Amino acid sequence: MDVSIARDFWSALEPLHAVTYFAPECLAANKEVGLRGFWMGYFGSRGAPLGPVPAAVIEASFYGFHPARVRRAVPDAWGFASPASILAVRGVAAAKALRRAAPDIDGVAAEAVPRLRAVVEAADGAGRVLFAANRDLDPPEDPVEALWQLATALREHRGDGHVAVLTAEGLNGLECNVLACAVSGTPGELLRFSRGWSEEEWDEASAALAARGLVDGESATDAGRTLKAEIERRTDALAAPPYQSLDDPAALHRLLAPVARAVAENGDIPFPNPIGLPRPAG
């Protein structure tokens, strides 16, 4: 199987998942359930499937965030809103946002959900904490909410594998952000600020990568670009096997792609953004 199918599905599923970070319906739901501020909403909502875990679990599984940023929100978040109460609203809010962005999404969801559910059921949860936690949530009855939940589970499946590759390459959470910016040309300030690192810490990580021959100033070297490409290839390879359960993966991708484009283009998701989602081509 061509492992690039995993990247194709990431491009189709990531915009659907990402409304949970940017759409006003989702931000409002976090506030209404009791979470205080954007970052408590982010960590609380994304981490809710794990249960009321300590900050260290969020740090390890989310990767890339400064521990202090996490610890300002967790475990306090669970005192303001229980994971169960967060789970009761996050998918509902995401479905509202998706329907607003893509009015034809109900028909797409009705057709896509059974196929995506087969992909999720085929995926191995071993070593994939965020994926396994999302996979085991009760399936929503609402088709668009179910579409969002399945997209989220598969997104976290890919992300868990990506973290495994990064750690295998000896890149800590800060260094992987620095390398990503150096390769893509994304302003370092965007990721540094969103992930909570100081300018001094960012510069120290840049120096460490330079010592490995991976960056030169704010730009990646050939070695750095080669390493990043290999990381992405291995991430695709780890994410691809569940899609073998599909009789026609390309057909499902064609079904999802217009909805993903509508969501990406409706203005809620900023470009560039900290999650690395590119602006739709064309």
Question: What's a quick, concise take on this entry?
Answer:
By secondary structure, the protein is mainly α. The chain has helices at residues 4-22, 24-33, 37-47, 55-62, 67-71, 76-80, 83-101, 105-122, 129-135, 143-168, 173-184, 188-195, 199-211, 222-239, 249-265, and strands at 215-216, 219-220.
Structure commentary:
By secondary structure, this protein is mainly α. It has one domain (4-167, 232-265). It is 70% helix and 1% strand. Helix 1 crosses helix 7. The chain is globular.
Q: Determine the fraction of residues in helical runs and give it as a percent range.
A: 55-70%
Give me the number of helical elements.
15
Mean pLDDT: 96
The amount of beta strand, in percent, is under 5%
Q: Low-confidence stretches at least 5 residues in length (pLDDT < 50)? A: none
Helix and strand content put the structural class at mainly alpha
Spell the H/E element sequence.
HHHHHHHHHHHHHEEHH
What's the shape?
Answer: globular
Largest sheet: 2 strands, antiparallel
**How many domain regions?**
1
Radius of gyration: 18 Å
Instruction: Let me know the number of strands.
Output: 2
Distance between the termini: 27 Å
Keywords:
282 residues; mainly alpha; two-stranded antiparallel sheet; 15 helices; 70% helix
